[in-house]
Amino acid sequence: MLKNKGQYRIGVFDSGLGGLTVLKHLLKKLPQYDYLYLGDTARVPYGGHSQELIYRYTKEAMDFLFSQGCRLIILACNTASSQALRRLQQEYLPKEYPDRRILGVIIPLAEYAATSHNIGVIGTRATIASKAYEHEIKKLNAQAIVNSNSAPLLVPLIEEGLAGSDIANKLLKKYLRPLKAKNIRTLILGCTHYPFLLKDTRRIMGKNCRVPDPGEIVADSLKIYLAKHSNLLSAHKTTGSRHFYLSDKPENFIKLGEKFLGQKIDNWQIISL
Fold it and tell me: How many structural domains is the chain composed of?
């Protein structure tokens, strides 16, 4: 565990590898902050669980990250954002950590999508069933048409390092086919694991469909948020520290994570939630 918690940190949480697609852009756009990444690799994926269980798992992760000095946490997990964020913000934070903040990934992506009218979303079963994207998009653009499709087998394949494989591409085509048939103009990758398949998704959807990189949008949104809340976190003059915590199975995470981030993952530790 970190001994010096005096410097406030930004926590990034996901059920597994997916949050790295957000962290990569945070490190690029906001390198001056200290980051703690927590991947609940013992219990990934979250998408097939009940809302109550997802909330409990996510709350345990928040408890850990706050105990390690995080003042702001990014739920870099669409499932947790759609199933647990509101309750965490309305019940958990006021009671346990009134001076801390938890932000999700759905609203920044919904704001981006709402500039279009024919929109597609793919995500886990839990995220799609919540209709979180449809709700947030329609608050901003009541005329928007939102078509959604769940893609439950993509996360396990990505966690096993099979992004880009024939089986991953066949499944991706199957999940995207109903959305492509609707001639959507903007596709939101409603799971932070899916940017591991970003190039293949863009190729399958074609040039007439925008497929943004979710991590880039979330990082830009956080940059604006921190500019408005400058008292929340202190920044370094140079690059901050990076620490990684996993609840199980470090081998795959470290191997795939280093390849994706393009840097060594040295400061990692196995913890119990």
Answer: 2
